[in-house]
Amino acid sequence: MSSKKSMLLAATTFLSLALFAQQPARLIIRGDDMGFSHSGNLALIKAFKQGIERSVEVIVPSPWFPEAVKMLEANPGIDVGIHLTLSSEWENIKWRPVSICPSLTDSDGYFQPMIWPNKNYPGRSLSENKWTITDIEKEFRAQIELAIRKIPRISHISTHMNCAGITPEVSALAKRLAEEYNIDIDLRELGVTYVGFDGPHKTLVEKKKSFISMLNKLEAGKTYLFLEHPGLNDAELQAIYHIGYEDVAADRQGVTDLWTDPSIMTLIKSRKIELISYRDLKK
């Protein structure tokens, strides 16, 4: 290679790196589990209208899905994903499939509590029972079609408790269905990095400190996803728990408080972090 070509290549590479460094870090704040409770629905809407949340994930078979539909109709700016679900983990509240899929349910007709083996629920995970891929495809399709019919702007899918990861076959099925229904926004293919709290996050003080630490480590030119579960510390959510996770109401209220904290919004602005949604990745 001639010295002239080498110099040109070096200059082009330097310019590309300089332009990349000027691009802001982009961050998707995603709120999960819309529909599982009235408290969760209220908190998810609040975290969008008054805070930093940009995408929400809706559990179609959940008991408060009809309310979620109405709330999302009233807030058209929220990006919405289908949170494909094959489990019903909470005590005191349960949900059933929206299709007829007997291999996915327990003796009462509800989804199993867990996807993966759990010492607190022995024998009551989907992976420990004899499910069929036919039933999973039937249920995934039913959830997708109901969601699209009720919320036409659905942009993507995600999975509750990583249910599509139960086998490579199920993972491939979820990918195929996303493509078929034109709701395939694959974060891995788009180079999006998952991030979480950078440290302890049990209390609100810990959440805020660890969230700030995470924000300060985001790199210019890269795109990230942070997901959590907003809620309200009220009587309804205090009655919802599963063994091993009993402080649901207080924990999820902390997420709501964090995502609506003015100082957090100020920090994001000062660091020039661009808040985006899944659908922005298509632009």
TrEMBL record:
<keyword id="KW-0378">Hydrolase</keyword>
<dbReference type="Pfam" id="PF04794">
    <property type="entry name" value="YdjC"/>
</dbReference>
<dbReference type="InterPro" id="IPR011330">
    <property type="entry name" value="Glyco_hydro/deAcase_b/a-brl"/>
</dbReference>
<keyword id="KW-0732">Signal</keyword>
<keyword id="KW-0479">Metal-binding</keyword>
<dbReference type="InterPro" id="IPR006879">
    <property type="entry name" value="YdjC-like"/>
</dbReference>
<feature type="signal peptide">
    <location>
        <begin position="1"/>
        <end position="21"/>
    </location>
</feature>
<protein>
    <submittedName>
        <fullName>Polysaccharide deacetylase family protein</fullName>
    </submittedName>
</protein>
<keyword id="KW-0119">Carbohydrate metabolism</keyword>
<keyword id="KW-0460">Magnesium</keyword>
